[in-house]
Amino acid sequence: MTSAHPSSPSPGHGSYPERVRIVEVGPRDGLQNEALPVPTETKVAYVDALSAAGFGEIEVTSFVHPKLVPQLADASAVLAGIERRPGVVYSALVPNPKGLERAVEAGVDRIAVFTAASETFNQKNINATIAESIDRFRPVMDGARAAGIPVRGYVSTAFVCPFEGEIPVGKAVDVIEQLLDLGVDEISIGDTIGAAVPLQVHRLLEALGPILPLPQTTMHFHDTRGTGLANVLASLEHGVAAFDAASGGLGGCPFAPGASGNLATEDLVYLLHGLGIQTGLDPAALRKASDVIELALGWRLPSRVRRAGPASVSWDERTEQP
Ligand code: HMG
Ligand code: MG
Questions:
Q1: CB within 8 A of 248, min separation 6: which ones?
Q2: Ligand 1 neighbours (beta carbon < 6 A)
Q3: What is the CATH number of domain 21-306?
Q4: Opening angle at CA 213, ends 188 and 123, nearest 5
């Protein structure tokens, strides 16, 4: 697990971390939202190409109801087809004990349970109240512990819900506390529809300071309204050193009207490397991975850095900073 090592001075408050861990969620969050099915062998080639880019963790797929998310119905086949690089964690979303059973059989390294800070969104997404979802996760946690599989906990709509509007900070904090009590080793805080602004990020992270250690904090931004990188910067100022992102800016959530692409990994890497923050990622290899999926999808991925190409300054091509 990455820990925050404040080093470079930030122009705002505090210091930026020296190194940031990026969890690549394109194969899951990205492809779950695609209108047309992507062939299993393309997904396998995409994940293999991502493995070559230097990620520590790739969220490969979801073990959810295959009729509700048909795009990821081939979860087991994808996991069986990929070439597993030593040191890379291949993870998947699991909503309930049935999902855990399938995930364990497929040999995932890590699972993620997911709930929300909004009752309405949670109901539409996983057909459960927040309290019911937490109860559902208890046997999942027990089973994962028995199988030696670590568990991340997602909190969706942590800032804004497409049905309820702005979410009070206390509501998100309460759900995060419940997930921590269950024993998840990390919380991924989701701006599901890409509507949050830095002020909201500051408020939530300030409130979480006493209960959520930085090494257990990951931010999951969607970039629907172009505030993704601004929210990353706000998070860095609090010492957050882990972010989810999707290559090329793929993504969305089929149960959240208005959700579009995740923050693009290329855009995040460009910003971080430019700030002198290490990611361990190779931008050229990342570009090749996005090429694989862009070619298969047949539409231009939205990442601004991808569309712009290499800049005349060289930091976007550097993998490690001094
Ligand atoms: P349910 O209908 O309440 O489940 O769905 P159930 O327990 O009543 O079971 C109904 C039937 O589904 C049964 O089959 C089960 O066996 C089957 P039947 O007996 O009728 O033939 N079933 C399953 N089959 C395969 N795998 C399973 C499974 N579970 C039950 N795991 C459930 C509840 C959660 C399963 C459903 O609502 C679901 O799959 N929802 C999909 C949610 C989803 O994938 N959302 C997108 C991901 S979340 C997201 O994108 C946000 C995130 O990125 C962060 C952010 O941006 O904020 C993470
Ligand atoms: Mg998401």
A1: 26, 30, 264, 265, 266, 290, 293, 294, 301, 302, 303, 306
A2: 29, 32, 62-66, 68-69, 93, 95-96, 98-99, 102, 114, 125-127, 154, 156, 190, 192, 220, 253, 255
A3: 3.20.20.70
A4: 30
Assign 41 to helix, strand or coil.
helix
Nearest by Cα to 220 from 154, 302, 280, 165: 154
**Which two three-digit tokens encode residue 192?**
């599901």
3-state percent helix, strand, coil for the chain, nearest multiple of 5: 45, 20, 40
pLDDT digits (tens, 9 = 90+) for 216-256: 999 999 999 999 999 999 999 999 999 999 999 998 667 77
Give domain limits for the chain. Answer: 21-306
Helix (H/G/I), strand (E/B), else coil: 319? coil
Are 277 and 17 a contacting pair, CB within 8 Å?
yes
CB 240 within 8 A of CB 279: no
161 in active site: no
**Cβ 157 vs Cβ 196: under 8 Å:** no
Cβ-based neighbours of 301, under 8 Å, separated by 6 or more = 247, 248, 249, 250, 264, 290, 293, 294
DSSP secondary structure letters along 222-234 = B-TTS-HHHHHHH
Give the global pTM: 0.94
Q: CA 54, CA 262: separation in Å to the nearest integer?
A: 19
